[in-house]
Each structure stands twice: as C-alpha cells, then as structure tokens.
Amino acid sequence: MILISYHLPVFFNFSVMANTKFFLGFLLLVLLVEMNVIEQPWIQGAEAIDCTAKCNYRCSKSWKPKMCLRACNTCCKRCSCVPSGTSGNKEECPCYANMKTHGGAYKCP
Questions:
Q1: Total domain count, the chain
Q2: Is residue 79 part of a domain?
Q3: DSSP assignment of 44-80
Q4: Backbone angles phi, psi at 100, to 5 degrees
Q5: What percent of the chain stands above pLDDT 70?
Q6: pLDDT at residue 85 in the model
Q7: 109 in a domain, yes or no?
C-alpha cells in the first residue's frame, strides 16, 4: 500500500488565519462602535432629558397643541434638546432648528 502525503503550503497555516479573522472581526466591531452604527445606551442615557415636560411647556401656547406636541417630542428624542420658551430661541439647539420635513419645511416648533 502506498501512502500519499499532502503538505499544505505555508500560507494555509490555520492558526494564523484564525487569528487574522479574529483581529479583523474585532477591528470591524470597533469601527462600527466609533461610527455609532451600534447604539451605545450608556452614552445616550447620560444625555437624556424629559422631553414630555419640555415639550408640554414649549407647546403650551400653540394654536394646534396636539400637532405641536407630536413634532416637538419627535425632535426632542432625535436631538436631546428643546429650546427654552414657548417659541423662538432655536439657536440654542442647532439640531432642533435645522430638522426639516420631507417637503422641506422646518419640522420642529
């Protein structure tokens, strides 16, 4: 009986390939976290504000309070900011001030 042995070339070193895959996976995970693709609740929790209370005050003098509250709460949740007062002062929250609807109108009251 003749035994034929096959020797794999050096570039098929499986431990090196496994280490490389682990390193690339870890690098991808770090990149996704840095790009904020993966949510970081421990950071977002620190910035949380009481959107309901802020928007109730912001919309207290609105002529359409339900619509104002809906838009304000959406903007607050996205920006973690509501300008002071019942109108104006949008320069305090640039994200809030610059958010627009699909039609191009300003979204936040």
A1: 1
A2: yes
A3: HHHH---HHHHHHHHTTT-SSHHHHHHHHHHHHHHHS
A4: -125, 160
A5: 72
A6: 92
A7: no
